[in-house]
Amino acid sequence: MPDFAYIARDLTGQKVAGSISAATEREVISILSGKSLFPVQVTTAKVAITPNAHLKVRGQLMATVYSQLAALLKSGVPLLKALAILRDQTSHKNLKVILEEIYKRVEDGSTLGDAMVRFPRAFSEMAINMVRAGGEGGFLEDALERVAAFTEQQEDLKGRTISAMVYPLLLGSAGTIVVSVLIIFFVVTATFDARSVLKLELPKATGEATNDSTRALSVLVNADGRYFVDDREVLRDDVESLKATLAEVAGSDRERKVLLRADARTPHQAVVTAYDALGQLGFRQVMIATAPEVRAAAKAGQ
């Protein structure tokens, strides 16, 4: 039976406090009245925490226990005997300890509901209240069956909810991974593609003065597609005119280095034409360089 804490006054008006084991609060008041005490406050005493109060059992397994206990009680098996049968049959470690503790409590005179309340992680508050009501009302078997059905439905709903949440989570995770991989791939690829790979053979700077026969021949192409050979403008933009000017400036020296300069605004075809003219004349050492101020340099040469 549960313990109740009370505060009462005796015939002289003195306050008296204590605790009584009884089935209900009404029984506590009746006991106090028989002792010539006038109850002021009656509350359920706090349940002592047992060392095994932290034990937990899955809801689906508890639904099976409720159902089996109800079947044994309906078959006429006494409560203690039914608890002993369930305790001996189960292979679940936590459940065996819990049923053993409940068996001892019931054997000592506690009700099944009062014994169950000491294991809040194994028995829900709804199950404890239903068992208490069934024990006091004489329909414990029906109460256990209802608790079993409700617990089974609750666990089934919980399983469906978790299953319904798994697919969106997996889909979202997979989508995040795919998008991340694509972003990384395209960003890295774009970074490498944006860098033009152009091998340039640049002349080495020296402190010695160079003469006309050893210095590189300068071929400059401006943004308008005009050609300048050693700051000398080619009058026409065709290949033959450019070849004639190159031959006149360079003479017969075809081993001379040529520096072909152009900027980003220079037409691509003009650069190709200049390179083709140099190749036709037999120049083999052609270097290409960018010249940001091609137009300005050309005008300065004029």
If you had to describe this structure to a student in words, what would you say it looks like?
It is a single chain. This protein has helices at 25-34, 59-74, 79-89, 93-107, 112-116, 125-137, 140-193, 239-250, 268-281, 294-301; strands spanning 3-9, 15-21, 38-44, 217-221, 227-229, 232-233, 258-262, 286-290. The protein is α/β, with parallel strands linked by helices. The strands form two sheets. It has a five-stranded mixed beta sheet with strand order 6-5-4-7-8, sandwiched between helices. Strands 2-1-3 form a three-stranded antiparallel beta sheet, with helices on one face. The longest helix has 54 residues, at 140-193. The radius of gyration is 50 Å and the shape is rod-shaped. The termini are far apart. The relative contact order is 0.07.
What is the total domain count?
Answer: 3
Number of strands: 8
Identify the overall geometry.
rod-shaped
State the CATH topology of the largest domain.
Receptor-associated Protein
Q: For this structure, what is the CATH class of the largest domain?
A: Mainly Alpha
Give the helices and strands as they follow along the chain. EEHEHHHHHHEEEHEHEH
Strand order of the largest sheet: 6-5-4-7-8
Q: State the end-to-end distance.
A: 117 Å
Unreliable segments of 5+ consecutive residues = 294-302
Q: What is the architecture of the largest domain at the second tier of CATH?
A: Up-down Bundle
CATH level-4 homologous superfamily of the largest domain: Type II secretion system (T2SS), domain F
Overall mean pLDDT stands at 78
Count of DSSP-assigned helices? 10
Helix fraction, binned, reads: 40-55%
Q: What integer value in Å does the Rg equal?
A: 50 Å
